[in-house]
Every structure is written in C-alpha cells, then in structure tokens.
User: What shape does this take?
Amino acid sequence: MGADRTAVVTGAAGGIGLAVVDRLVAEGVAVVAVDRDEGLLAEAGRRPGVTTRAVDLGDRHARTRLVAEVDRLDYLVNAAGVVSLVPVADVTVEEWDRVMRVNAEALFFLCQGFAERMGAGSAIVNISSTAAKTGAIAEAAVYAASKAAVLSITRSFATHLAPRGVRVNAVCPGIIDTSMGDSVVRELATRWGEDPERLRAARASGVPMGREGEPRECAAAIWFLLSEDASYITGQNLNVSGGQVNWG
Assistant: This one.
C-alpha cells in the first residue's frame, strides 16, 4: 500500500475527516480532500499528496461532477455530515430533508458513483455515530435517524460489492473532541440553561474511559478498516466510543 493508491475523503476540512487525511498521508496514500468550506479546506491542501475539491455534497449536480472528476479510486471515506438539534415536536420537513440530503442521500450516491471506479482490494468506510444505536437525545432525533440510515446503507453496499472484492464498513464515533462537538455542547447548554464547560465535563464523565475521544483515534480505526489487515471484514460497524456503546 502506498503512493500508487488514491483516496477520496469527504468532510476533510476538520475534525475526523482531517484526521483521516493525515493518517492516509502518513500511509503514503494520495488524497482528494472534499469539503464545502473552501477556506478551511486549504489547511488540508497543504499536506503532501493532497488535492482539494470544494463541493457542497447537498447539491446533487456538484456531487455528480465530483464523481466524474476521479478516474480511479482505492479508498472512499464518507466523513461529511451535518448535525441538527431540534426538539422532535418542532422538526420540519425542510429540516429533515436538509440533514438527510447530506448524511444519508449524499453518502449513498457517493458510494454508488465511486464504486464504479473501485476494483478488488478497495474499501469504503462510512462515518455513522453511536447516536444511530442509542437514539441520543430528543433534540438530535433527525441526526440519529440519518446515522442509522448510514448503517443500513453500509450493509447494503457491502453485500452488493462483496463479489467484486470491495469492502464496505462503518465507524460509529461516540463523544469526540471536534469543533462540531463543541458547537453541539454550546447549543445544548443554551437550550438547557447550563454552563457549557460543566455540560461537556458531564458528557465525558458518562464515558467508561472517562474522556472524550480524539479524531486521530477514529482515524486509526478507519485506516484499519481500509487496510489489508481488515481483508475479511465487510458490512460491519465499529464503535469508537470509549466503551460508551458496547453492543453492535
């Protein structure tokens, strides 16, 4: 594995996506880093062997153009996602569509489109969430539903692509120290009338390992699932949650 291999990573401007870019670069993989935030994406573009594409994955035409721009592909990591914090009773069709369009629809059709360029030994890893299994909090119902859809999509593509030797798995991060996680804490603290730092500490204390995870720890699990060390693993989901969710 090395310089002759290419990966596409979405959500690559920060958090888990950027950590995956760093891990792939360390493994000698050329990376196409994709994100809608062109300014933040420039940071990923400074890595050796990384090219960038500023794409709003909620835009179906832009998504199609992205797929067409990539000639061949060994690895696909779908890390792009949006979060929604709306009480169940207040969820609108528009909010449902906004979240599903990126977290589920875009992921599905990127798997579909890029799979045509992937041969035996290639692999896809989709980023779900432990929220897909726990339902998380009521304010995150749409997000949790979208991440549950990711698990189903992963299993379907794993079955579909297995005869071609392309593996498809998912990672379910728990509480990870990212800017998105910070924004979730701040918004919930405002809604609930709590101190953000106290709320963050309380969330971390509920993890058996007693801390938030780091993006690099998710990236390590993702690389394992992409690598030949996971050559007989497909259709699975791996919790990276410090023991917070310990069932499949």
